[in-house]
Amino acid sequence: MTSVADRLDALDASLIALEDARTPLHVVSVMIFDPLEQGLDHERLTGLVAARIGQVTRYRQRVREMPGRLGPPVWVDDAAFDITYHVRRAALPRPGTRTQLAEFTARIAGRPLDRARPLWELYLLEGLEQGRFAVVTKVHQSLVDGVTTVDLGHLVLDDGPDADDADDDAGVPVAPRREPSDVTLLAGALWELATRPTLAITAARRGAGDVLDAGRNVLSGLRTVAATATDPAPVSPLNARVGAARRVAMFPLPLADFRRIRDAVAAADPTLPVTLHDVVLTVVAGGLRTWAANRGEPVHGGTHVRALVPVGTSDRPRDAAGGAPGSEPPAGGGVGLVDEVVEALVDLPVGEPSALARLRRVAGMSRRPAGVGARAMTAAAGFAPSTLHHLGARLGQATRRRRFNLVVTNVPGPQEPRFLPGARLLETYPILPLGARHALAVGVTSYDGVVCVGLTGDRAALGDVDLLGEAIAEDLADLLELAAGLSAAPIHQENPMTATRRVYLRLRPADLDQVAAAAPLPASTPAFAVTRAVREAFEDDDEEDLEYAAMWIAAGEDTTAARVVAAVDVPSADVDEAGGADGPADEAAYSVRLAAPVPAARIVSLHASPAGAGDDEELDWYDVGEAAPLSSVLTGSDTEGSRPGG
Predict the structure, then answer these.
(1) Residue 637's pLDDT is what?
(2) Structural domain of 86
(3) Where are the alpha helices (DSSP H) in 489-626?
């Protein structure tokens, strides 16, 4: 029966049930084109889209609720389907800037799709600077499952500029089926309830939470993800209540810069395999660090932001067609291939001030087992990046929202140009939907030498999302400069990328004068670190939690005096674990002995709180260059302060 055959599955039903005016669940793709000589007008684009969706059923169907809500909604053919309603024309005041394009995108991204019609729209946006135009697609997540239906961007792009849709067999649309009556739908639902009694229980418990739980299982069959999934995400301004209005930022970054960083680190330390994916996550973390500091948010050594990174990427070399060497050409036009799509939670080390250390930590975490590969979701070759971003957004909706702070999808695309008839694709940006308590989403697509970063932010909570984009670009530049220095320097056995260890030194406020004078800190300074005993006692904790605990032990329990901690990276050979304490909470279990004084150049950051601060208050983070004014603040005229906790 139609009601059974075209029933929405549990996840798609949850996407429909949970959507409201504040959280529309569609993915927007912004594709910027450089027109060729023959150009592309609205009429030709409409004909192209009509031809490409001719036999893709979902793009000509709408969602219909079951009578009495006796089951999930069903897909029904739209007998009054009107392609001109869905393919629209708009223009920016010439010459349209990137800022104006972002504002246009934000407006349409914040508006829900019309439930009475098929859940998609496509805009031909003219008037961009340099004579360019954009095609902006808006497709509901329930349409695109990556198996029966792919995204519009996957359908309309070609690997050459002269595709002729007149010869496309898929251009003949399938005649719409007659819409079933309420009686037919009820009969089908009652028959299924009789033959599948468990469905009756589901129908009786049609709360959104039950539907969402079912959707999680249907999506990928995952029962667990990373170890951090058992813990709630840290408190973050990224988890503000979301309104209906959006801010969007889109900016291109050179793919060559990401490759140079990866290659320089690999040359400096072959034991640390760093991927392009790791570099992307690292610069996102660095951008978030700068953004948070500029907003006055507390940032310390243990600060992290948990990202749901649902789309794995492949660093395999590609042949001229965009696929792996020797592979079959991808179906539906050459598109980027990935090894698998996985669900993973990654704690981005936002508090780490060293960009190279941040990259090392991200690289280590991204290789931690993080779940079960979802090859079944990408069994058909040739998924376009826009389709994979849909799958990532679906995973974001299917994961409990308290487990992560933001979604980051990173999808590799083809490194050869793609075309609409008469136009070459220059850049393509994914604009992801926001969850009810997730005010930021990051989508990244690498295409034809450009890494295209799309940021979606709630207009009230993240009105400065464009500044976050600038911070990400700046962090990439800083990391590139550091990596260039790595590759130019001779590689010794004692490589600072691998032969150092993070240690936390308990200082007196007066010691800050020594730091300001760039004098070495004595080896007798009380030192603490994540020791073997600590790892054994807290085997379920991640690296961030362990490092944060070591820093707190270094700060000491005496809050009547000012507390100061210096985070330093010292040669591993100079660190001797003391151990041998009564329990993991005892200071001795965290303490280490230093074999040599610590040069001022080894100090990464300072962390301090004034006298009288509560024992549960955050330690404020300071740059090493702020040692002198920090000393004045903490000591006043007293330069003989006692060592906290000592």
Answers:
(1) 46
(2) 2-214
(3) 511-516, 532-537, 543-555, 587-590
